[in-house]
Amino acid sequence: MSKKITVEKKVLSENDRLAADIRKKLEKQKIVTLNLVSSPGSGKTSLLERTLKELGNKFNMALIAGDVQTENDADRLKRAGGKNVRPVITGGACHLDARMVTRALDEMNLKGVDILFIENVGNLVCPSSYDLGEDMKVVLMSTTEGDDKPLKYPSMFRRSSVLIINKIDLLGLSNFDIKQAEKNARTINADLKVFEISCLKETGLEAWYDWLGNQVTSKKGKK
Amino acid sequence: MHELSIATEIINIVEKEASRQHLTRVEEIGLKIGALTGVNPDALTFAFEASTGDTSLAGVVIKIEKIPVKGECRACGNAFEVQEFVFICPECGSSDLKISQGEELDIDYIAGQ
Known about the structure:
Helix content of chain A is 37%, strand content 22%. Chain A has helices at residues 13-28, 44-55, 72-79, 98-106, 149-152, 154-159, 178-188, 205-221; strands at 3-10, 32-38, 61-67, 84-89, 115-119, 136-142, 162-166, 193-196. Chain B is an alpha+beta fold. Chain B has helices at 3-20, 41-52, and strands at 26-34, 61-67, 70-73, 79-81, 97-101, 105-112. The model of chain B has no long low-confidence stretch (mean pLDDT 94). At the A-B interface, β1, α1, α6 and α7 of A face α1, β1 and β6 of B.
């Protein structure tokens, strides 16, 4: 005789438990933690390179660079001045999970760190399911992609707090409509904070740097 | 294809639960998957079958209940189903919504002997 047993358990409960531990640990140390997500090639590493160069003297920044293979991104971040960079090779997995981040953090010195950037694997689907203990997800898209990207990947845009549109120097060279892109994103998530930037031409980045500074200030101000 | 990682988590949880409940054979697993999770039910079923091939869970039936996104407007109180991921109240146009369901990625039940 078959019996039915109610389980009612979250599939990712183990990930969520580890993420909660990470969040608690980083909150205690007052570290602003941002999980950067995007398609491959939108400019996550470029944005971090710029940010390291511009704010390296002002803030103590630590970085976890996730990739399916190679430590290329981590190497780029080190060359850009990153002193506290930890590569995580997922070995095929299309996302970082809280266990990988826990392991990476165990090997990092977080003393005095103001901001921790977690550069996720380039993928707009899978990373949205995995809480890494971050304060916020920052989603990037670029003008060489479709302006309907938010509509195609609603989970990611819904779960992000910040949207960065990169490569605005290329506006007009493709049929990417930036107004439409923002409108699409706000249909999914009206609360998104939006930055329009070009990492290559260094435009629009001041607002991003200011915003980062404000995040650090408000985190330090918390008792 | 994070469905493979998710299938692995499901197997871990179900094996523990089955042993705790003294089930010698699991026949069915009931899942609830919200539309907001970005998890594809067909891909998950496939990943599950591929991962259980040579385990005690081989051949287990996966029943997936798809949970649509529902929200309640904080401005006018309208409760509605969010269609096509448009998070805007169809009554008053406000985007200040409380999402009541659609984030589920749960093991609802297991059945067996």
